[in-house]
Structures are given as C-alpha cells and as structure tokens.
Amino acid sequence: MLNVKINGKEVQVAPGSTILDAAKEAGVSIPVLCHDSRLNPFGACRVCLVEQVGMPKLMAACTTPVTDKMEIITESEKLARVRKTAIELLLINHPLDCPVCYKGGECGLQDLTYEVGVTKVRFDASPNDTPVDHTNPFIERDIDRCVLCGRCVRICDEVVNIQAISFLNRGTDTMIGTSFEQPWNCEYCGQCISVCPVGSLNNRVYLFKNRPWNLESEKTICGLCSCGCTVSIDYECNEVFRMNEMPEEGVNHGYMCAKGRFGFDFMNSVKRETEAQITVGGEAKKATVAEAVEYAAEKLKGLKAEEVAVVVSPRITNEEAFLASKLAETIGTKNVFSTETDEIMPEGAYSEVEASDALAVLNINVTESNPILGLAVRVAAREENANCFVFYPSETALKRVATELITGNPDELAVKMEKFCAAMGGADNDFSAMAKTMLEAEKPVVVFDPYNKADAYIAQEIKKACDKVILVPAKSKNNSVGIVDMGFGKNNPADFAKGVEGGTIKAVLCFGENILVRSGWSKLEGALAKLDLLMVTDPFMSDTAKAANVYVPVATFAEKSGSFTNLEGRVQEVSKAVDKGVSADADVIAALGKALGAELPTDVYAVRKLIEKEVKLYSGIQWDGGKVAYPSVFKTEMEKASATAKGSGKFYLYPASLRLHSGSYTRWSPDLAKVYGTPKLELNDADANEMESAEGDTVKIKGDGFAGEFVVEINKQITKGCVSLPEDFASTADIFSLGRYLKAEISK
Amino acid sequence: MRKNIFETIFFTEILKGLSITLGHMFTKPVTYKYPFEATPIQDRFRGVQYIKTHADGSTKCVGCYLCQKVCPSECIHIETDCGPNGERLIRKYELDLSRCIYCGYCEEVCPVDAIHMGWEWNLVDNTRDNYVVNMRVLSQNYKDNLEGNWKNKHLKKKLEEGVQQ
C-alpha cells in the first residue's frame, strides 16, 4: 500500500491507482469531464489537473498513478485559474444553446462552468453551425456541441467493441464520426449516449420530450430480457419519459441495450387497453375487471378441475407466478404451463463470465439475444490471455474478439460441435487443441442456448468431461428462470398443445402469455376458439387476447412491484414507478382466487413470506440481489437430440435471435418497430445475387409443411446456403413449430 | 413643551391645520374616480404576459421549461416534443392567469427574450376557464401591445413608445 497525502489528508491506496482514486478515498472531489470510471484513463480535457508538492508541472489526476509519499494539492489559486481557462477554451467552440439543448440541466460542461465560475468567455466565441445528423434512427448527433472528450469512442471500443465511431481528422478539425462519414453501422445500444457529457449524442426517443429537472426516478429492473439490468425509470405524472442507465449499478454496471434504452415507449402507448372485455358468442362487450373475473369464475365453476389449465408468461413477477400456482392449487388442477421447462437451471454469474480465461459460446448469437451477457463475454474475450471459441451458423458480432469463430450450415455446425464435445472427452480430432485450451483453463465458461435440446446435450457432455466448466444457459425472457422456480416448468409445453387440441383442456387462464406467437403453440388458434373459457391478461390486445372470451388489461413491469430472477438466477427487486390505472396480474389472480373461495394475498411482502415458506430454493433468499443456489444445471440426463435440418430444399433455415426485440412485447414500441417491425429473411449477398433479389424485395420461402413470403435483408455475415428468420412473430412461429433447423426453397 | 397662553386662547394650531386642508381644496386631486376614470399605468407595471413573435409570426419561445420551473405559483404548463425535422416543437404552452401572482420571474428567466409582462390588467370574466391562456392568446397579446389595441380603453401607451423594457 502507498501512503498519499491529498490536501493534507493522509490515505492509503493500492499501487497502480490514480490520483483521482486516492482523492476519492480521501473524500476530496476533483472536477472531471473526460473521465469515466468504467473506461481506461484518457486525459483529454485537462480539467482534473492537480499540483504535486515539489513538482513544477501540473498533473492530470485521472491518468497519473500515485507514488509513495506523494503530496497532492487539489485546490489552489493557480489550479482555479488553470481549470477556468480549460473550460473557457472548451466554450470557444461550444454553442451556448443550453435552453434548447437535450442535455440542459444534466450537462457535465454546464455543471463545470458553474463550478469553476466562468461567467464570461475572454476569447472570441466561434461555434460551428453544422446540420444535425439524423441518419441513426435512435441517436441524434450534433457535432457542434462535442467537446472531444472521447468517452463515446472509448465506450464503443472498450465495452461494446463495435468501434462504430472514432476521431476523424486532426487538430482543430477533429470531430467524432464514422469511417468515411458513412451512416452509422452499429448495434444501437446507445452506450455512447449514456457517457456523452454534453448534448452531442442524444436519445431520439426522449429528445425534447421533457427536461431532466421535471423527472422523478425509480430504480428498478428492466423487464425486456433475462439479463436483469438495473435501470432507472424517469417519469413525470405517470408517464415514462425514459429508461436511463445507472452507472456502476447492478449486474450490468450501468450498461443497457437498445431494447431498454429505446423500447420503453410501449408503456405510454395509446394502443394499451384500459377496459376489460367479455366476448360472448362472438360479440365483444366492455366490462369492469370485477365483472370479467366474476364471469370467468362462473365458467370455471361449471368445469372439472382437470379441464382447466393455467398458463403464465415469463413476463410476470415471481410473486405473481407464485399466486398463479396457488390459484391452480385452489382450482385443483395440475395443468400448469409456460414456455419454459425446469430441465435446465442457471449456474454461472456475470462476474464468472467476465473473469473467465476460456469461453465457448455454443450456437447462440449472445450479443443479440442477451446483450448484457454479450458484453460480459466481450470483457473476457478481450483479455490477452483469454480464449473465446464461438460456434454459430453465421458470423456474429463476437467475430472481432473470438479466438476462433466456427461457422457453417446448421448440419455442418452440429457435426463440428459434436466433434468439439468429443475432443473435450479425450477424442483426437480437429478440435483437440481447442478442447485442450478449455480443459487447461482455470475458469472455463460455456454459454449455450437452453431452448435447443441438441446444444444442451453437448453442454452437459462438456460439463461431464470437465467439471470446472461453468455453464451459462442464456434464457430469453425477464423472468424465464423465476416462473420455473415458482412451479411453472414441471410440464412439457407440448402437453398443453396436445390437451387443447385433444379437448381434454376446456378452459385456459393465460396470464400475460401470447400463446399464438410461440413456436409449438402457434397453431392452436382454431382449438383456442373452441374452448369454454380463455381468459387472457395482457397490457395490449395481443393476438391471443383477441381470441379470448375474457380479456383483462394489466400493468407492465414499470407499474408493479415484485421481483424478477435473471439468467444467473439472481433475484432482483422491481419497484413501481408509474400508475396507468390498470390492475396488476396479482390483483386479477387474487380476485379470481377470491371468487373461487381462496384468500390470496396481493401484498408483495406477504407473498414473499409465503414463497420463502413454500418454495425451498427461495427460503431465506435476499430479494434484492441474492443468487438462488440451484443444486445442478440439469435436472435429469439430457437425451441426445437430432440437430439435422428437416425437409428438403437448397437452403438451410434457422431461427435468428430477434434483432432489437425480445418476444412479442417490445413490438408495441413504436420506435423499435420503426427499425425492425416485420420479420426479415436474412440472406447472404452471393445467394441474393444468384437470385437477383435486392434488399427490400419480397421472396417466397417454401419447405415441407410451410410456406411464406418475407422481405429480404442482405447480410454478408450469413453463411452461403443459409437463411435465417426471427422467431416469435406470428408468421414465423408456425414455421419453427416444425423444428429449429429446416430446409427450404426460396424463389422470387 | 409648554404651551403659551396666546396659542391656547386663539386656537392657532387648529387654524394651521385648517389652512393645509383649505390649501388642498384648491389643488388638483391625486385620486382617480375609478371605474369612471382610468388609472395611469407605469412603465414597469406587471400585467398580463405576452410572448414575442418573430417577423414571420412564429413564436420566439423555444420551450426550455425555465419559466415553468421558476414560476412560484406553478401557473405555467409546457409540453414539448421533437418535430419532424428534429427541431424542438412546443406542443402546449398554457398559463393560468388566475393562479399567476404577476411576480415577473418568467420574464426575468427567459433566455430568448420571449415572455414579457404586459400592461393589461382588467381581466373580469364570467368563467374561470378563460383564464387559462395558450400560446395563441399570448402571441396575440404581443400584437395588441404593439398596436395599442387595448381591451381596456384607458390604456393609451403602445409598446414602441419609449418604454424601457
């Protein structure tokens, strides 16, 4: 430890820490502009200059490492003068349009200007007047306001690893831009917006909607995928204005993805229903929630217990899922379903992924499906002595960091993964070197897709071959893990389809799930219409809600309290930010329970007490960030599943991770839908040339048992001879109900 | 003070007082016969606000929310949005005159010299709803101020005429 004196106060810091770290330790604040604790030191703005006793030169606190017995002075007349000049120089080219600026009120430069007391600029102000760039659908770029701190460039490189933007030109001509001033080619994660200290990079969804001093914030967990990011919901008068990052907080270190940052607007959507609806004989009638519940209860009373099924969505909270299981108990049915199964449980945490020295990503485009897990993978893969092996049918964004990227059509890839698996078990083949790296690594991690049985089998075999491997099953939805823990993963989802089609299930209580866009269930439309009772709760009139007898509008995750369990198995608290005047799922379930003669609590804490008592995994759990200790990843021995593509045709068709979406929920967001609203068929450029089809053309796809028409998106990363379609759209769910890998013919 | 006998006998103090009263009987009165007669409005009087417009008639206001923030009686309500060309768009600008305390903070805080305190003050109306005025009314007030087009007949002064605003 080194002894350092900051403004006369002695502190002890670890070797290698900077003056800024030491000052923080001593409780002294040094003004900074270009520094971000999550990024490498840069030293561009010279605002953090400090004096060292005995040194004539000033030093940048954010870049200078401390030495033993250093004496630092952070406040002096000289420093005040220097800092003031640094700000004055920045203000020469910075337009003073704070009243209309996006950042006014929370601007780093504005705060510093006040802090150092600049009231007049001594130099001739000459702000530029370059037109604002609107080429990116989510990010507005006003380069005039830029102070060239380089935070956006660094976060895009160091954290996101996309390197979409960089410094262009030199000297006074320096600006932030894309290579050759092309339109932005990025993941739309918006990390650059979150670090920009001025209003140069702006969130177009929130742009000019409100000002920061009007907004109240509520810390909660994002409910749009299983990553479980800590976010703050900024709202005024029950309207959500933005979902903002919380730097350094939560499992995500304050990073967010496009879904969270730009997709929150569905909560304010005017398309949301406000009244319950009862449909009798094809005629829809508005009703109160109480009437709807009463109607459903009457119908339920006329049916046998085993004829009722309860379906929950991974969107609802742990507490609501528990109440739903209690409701099923009250009814006396064992027909509890969800799209999830309890075969695979979480194991690894983000910290373990980040610290890993050998990673294998098996057949999952993790940066698309679970963006924050993707960032963790990138952190590990960027380490010099770490290896990252990626298996995927096409090239993915991990290509930049992967030691080896193994692609090929789904059949070839399955063979390659099996060989890799065999090599892990000791076989001698092309993958032996790779397997050796994994086996010799100290902290090997395997990320895989738990919804793909063939991959899960391989992951299991790898775990058997090497016990120190930490598995990370990348579940997809915000509470995919939690609803299984609450008892909704016991039954096979296929049994639900069988029951509904066979007529053994006559009433379905569906809490939040959009049955008709899920692969395996999407063909139930006709059968659902014949049910005696289909009760659906959903914030929107979803495809399934349209088919329902009883529909009740419910709250989104920003409007209720509870908890979600993320893909690591970490339970995190969700808190209510706004009230849109609709009831939560918990209230509907409790009302239904009451009508059927069971008293169910709706208070979150009362439900948690019950959960702790009845769910063994959650007994004594810390509800705000505690990790559930699962006994094992696999409940039973996985069976070897065939991964070969079914049918015949020239092209391989496989499900791609949804771009910018998570299931069917985010599609109600007008901004995300603007960029990706309809399913697109991704095609290699060579194949597209052969077919003479250009981007935006509609092509017909036909295979054994399915046909459809889709818009083409040409993507050079797709392997030749393969095409991909997103899952979870009504038109594609039918196709993937037949199997994950299919063969198809494509014609214009 | 001791009173002398002369003053006590001849009531000189009362006469002194009466002389002031008598004097005022022949000077011009300082009061006004309101409502039959108009009271003068001083240059720095703070009446109903107006919002300046550009030459083309578009408002000078940029919707920065500073007047809403600074308003002690919370009578200003603003809603803004992003326009089709990425510009700042004012969806709503409402000022509740019945809540306003005419303190003039909004005028002081405005960074673009848009909102000002006018001289109009006579606001008697049959319903309270009319007291909530929007951007259209506030811009019209500016025009009226410019042209001297007063609702209250006694207001003579135009905005251009020598007012140091």
Tell me about this structure.
- The complex is a heterodimer of chains A (748) and B (165).
- Chain A has 748 residues and is of the alpha/beta class.
- Chain A folds into five domains: 2-75, Ubiquitin-like (UB roll), CATH 3.10.20.740; 102-268, Alpha-Beta Plaits; 276-342 and 480-627, Rossmann fold (3-Layer(aba) Sandwich); 350-473, Dimethylsulfoxide Reductase, domain 2 (3-Layer(aba) Sandwich); 651-747, Barwin-like endoglucanases (Beta Barrel).
- Chain A contains 23 helices and 33 strands.
- In chain A, the strands form eight sheets. Chain A has a seven-stranded mixed sheet. Chain A has a six-stranded mixed β-barrel with strand order 28-32-29-31-30-33.
- The longest helix of chain A has 17 residues, at 77-93.
- The termini of chain A are far apart.
- Chain B has a single domain, classed as 2-Layer Sandwich (Alpha-Beta Plaits), CATH 3.30.70.3270.
- Chain B starts with a helix and ends in an 18-residue tail after the last helix.
- Chain B has a three-stranded antiparallel sheet with strand order 2-3-5.
- Chain B has five helices and five strands, in the order H-H-E-H-E-E-H-E-E-H.
- With 165 residues, chain B is α+β, with helices and mostly antiparallel strands.
- CATH architectural name of chain B: 2-Layer Sandwich
> Quaternary state, please?
heterodimer
Number of helices of chain A: 23
> Ranges of chain B with pLDDT <50 over ≥5 residues?
none
Q: CATH class of the largest domain in chain A, anyone?
A: Alpha Beta
Overall spatial form of chain B: elongated
Would you report the number of β strands of chain B?
Answer: 5
Q: H/E series of chain B, N to C? A: HHEHEEHEEH
Strand order of the largest sheet of chain A: 14-13-24-23-22-15-16
Global outline of chain A: globular
Largest sheet of chain B: 3 strands, antiparallel
| Rg of chain B, alpha carbons | 25 Å
